[in-house]
Specification:
With 264 residues, the protein is mainly α. Helices cover 67% and strands 4% of the residues. It folds into two domains: 84 residues, no CATH class; 162 residues. Helix 4 packs antiparallel against helix 5, helix 5 runs antiparallel to helix 6 and helix 7 packs antiparallel against helix 8. This is DUF2306 domain-containing protein.
Length: 264
């Protein structure tokens, strides 16, 4: 039984007759589709207002559903139109949206850029936590520098392929590698205050690398995606810079140490 039929039957239930004239007004509706009473003009009559109310409720529900459906279709059309206007196509991998379907772009990201980024983050952290002397710290620092160089090269190529959207990542990558180069050169050539220059340069390179990562991917990461965009810049700087300042005020190396001059 359809909804309209059920509502009509409910509205046409026999009702105790009202004053004269109600039956005549009801008869103006013509033959009813379902007989609710054997005698329309007898002691029982159908109240027309009840039928009108049922039909009105049914109409409101139908209009509401049609409006919701229409709004959903409009939203989909707007999204499709936006994609058509920007000309962007995306690839979703493990819940992360990559703004391209180009095979070379995707191969460069997953085959080169992401492994280099993970290696740079891990090796840089281990180098910073290692004892500051010739040996493990020096080897890991050198590996970090060359991984960062390769990461900067891949980021530059990716930025050139989508310059309008990624030029800021190229700027961050350039600053990060420049800081690492200054820090390493100060160490190798023993600039004046080379320890502090080395600490500041390598530390800033690591922070700027993290800023570039969060600026590019923060909107897709758990917890980070709920933050405003400027926090992707602020949080790494707010955490990293105080650590660098502390290391500059109390350097991990001291001239009295016998291996101080061996750091290269």
């Amino acid at each position: 039984m359809s909804r309209l039929e059920r509502l009509t039957r409910r509205a046409l239930r026999p009702w105790r007759a009202r004053p004269e004239g109600v039956g005549i007004a009801g008869a103006a509706f013509g033959p009813l589709p379902f007989a609710a009473s054997a005698d329309w003009t007898g002691s029982y009559a159908v109240v027309p207002d009840r039928l009108l109310h049922a039909l009105h409720c049914l109409r409101r529900r139908s209009v509401r559903r049609q409006t919701t459906l229409f709004a959903g279709l409009v939203d989909v059309e707007l999204q499709d139109g936006s994609n058509a206007m920007t000309g962007e196509e995306t690839t979703i991998v493990a819940g992360i949206e990559i703004p391209s379907t180009d095979h070379f772009f995707l191969a460069l990201i997953f085959g080169v850029h992401i492994p280099l980024g993970l290696a740079s983050v891990a090796i840089g952290a281990i180098a910073m936590l290692s004892q500051k002397r010739r040996g493990r710290h020096s080897r890991l620092g050198t590996i970090y520098f060359w991984c960062l160089l390769a990461l900067f090269a891949s980021a530059t190529l990716l930025s050139l392929m989508r310059w309008a959207e990624n030029y800021h990542l190229f700027v961050l990558g350039t600053l990060s590698f420049a800081c690492a180069w200054i820090g390493r050169t100060a160490l190798r050539h023993r600039w004046r205050y080379w320890v502090r220059v080395h600490i500041a340069g390598m530390g800033l390179s690591y922070i700027l690398m993290l800023v570039a990562f969060y600026v590019d991917n923060g909107k897709q990461l758990p917890l980070w995606k709920d933050l405003p965009h400027f926090m992707y810049w602020l949080i790494p700087l707010a955490v990293g810079i105080p650590l660098i300042v502390r290391a500059l005020l109390w350097p991990p190396l001291a001239p009295a140490r016998p291996d101080f001059h061996l750091m290269r």
